[in-house]
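Dear colleague,

Thank you for sharing your sequence with our group. We've completed the structure prediction you requested, and as agreed, I am returning the results in plain text so they can be pasted directly into your records. Please verify that the sequence below matches your submission; if there's any discrepancy, let me know and we will rerun it promptly.
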Amino acid sequence: MRIRKILFPCSLLFTMLGSAEVLSASTDKALSLFEAEQYQASIHEADRVLEATPDDSEALNIKALSVSVLGDDNTAIRLVSEALEASRKTGKASIEQQANYWNNLGYFNERQRNFQLALGYYRKSLEMRLAAYGESDLRTADSYNNLGTTLSKLGQFDEGFAYLRKNLTLRERLLGADHHQVAVAINNLGNAYNLQGDYESSLPLFQRALQIDTRLYGPQHPILAVRWNNIGDALRGLGRYDEAALFLNRALASDLATFGENHPKLVLRYFNLARLYEAQGDVSRSGDAYANALRILRQVNPGDTEQIQFLESKLGTAAAVSAAGK
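Please find the predicted C-alpha cells below.
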C-alpha cells in the first residue's frame, strides 16, 4: 500500500479551476478565497452564491474543491456531480468548465482510490478537451498526466507511460525545457517507474526534476522538498540507504520548517523514513516514524480508516519486533 498525498498537486489547480475568463462573476470571491487557502471562507461564500442561485455550477465546483482539501472527498464527489447536472440543466457552462468538472470528479475518486471510476472520468475530460482544443494545449496535457498516473496506479504501465510521455513532450514543446510544469511532468513519470519498482529508471528522472527546480528557485527553496523526498525513496529502493537518509531527512526538515509539525505533507515524509529505517532493520526509529505519520493522519484526515489501519498495523509490527528483541 502507498500513502496518498492529501493536498492538491499545484500542477492540477489550473485545470481544476479553469481559466479566469470562464468563471462567473458571482463566484470570483469564492475562488479568491480558495486560492488564498481560506477554505472555510470559500465554502461560506460558495454557499452564499448557491442560496441565491442553486444551479451555479462554478460555485458547486469551487465548494467541492474546498471541502476536498479539508478531507471530505465524499461530499466533494457529490458537489461536483451536482455541478455537472447543473451544467446540463442550464446549458450555461462552457466546454472548458464541463471538462474541468469531469476531471475533478476523476481526481476526487482517485483520492478515494476508486481508480477505475477515476479513469473513466479522466477519459471523458480528455475527449472533451481534444474536441475543444486539440492535441497541442496544456489542458490536454493535464488530461494526459491524469490518465497516465491513474493507469500506473492500476498497474497498466505501458498505457500509463505512453500518456505520461505525451504529457512531458507537450509541456516541453509549449513551455520549454526549464519550466516548473516540465519538472512536475518528469517527476510524475518517475513516480510511475517507482510504482513499477523500477528505481533505476525513476532516480534519474527525479534528479532531472530537481535540477530544473533548483535552477528556477535556488538550492534551498521549500518547493524542492518533493524532489528530495522522491530521490530519497528511489535510493531506498536501490538499497543506497545512507544516501536515501540524507534526502529524506532533508525533505522532512524542509516541510517542518515551512508547514509546522502537523501538516498533511508530513504523513508521507514520515512514512518514507519509516520504510527506510525498516529496510535498515532499525525498529526503534521506524516505529517512531510510523507513530508520527499515524498521529498526523488521525488529526488531518480521521475518516481515512484504511490508511489509519494500515499505519496502525505497521506500528504494531514494529512494537512486536522491538519487544521480541528485548
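Summary note from our side: DSSP finds 16 helices and no strands in the chain.

Kind regards,
the structure core
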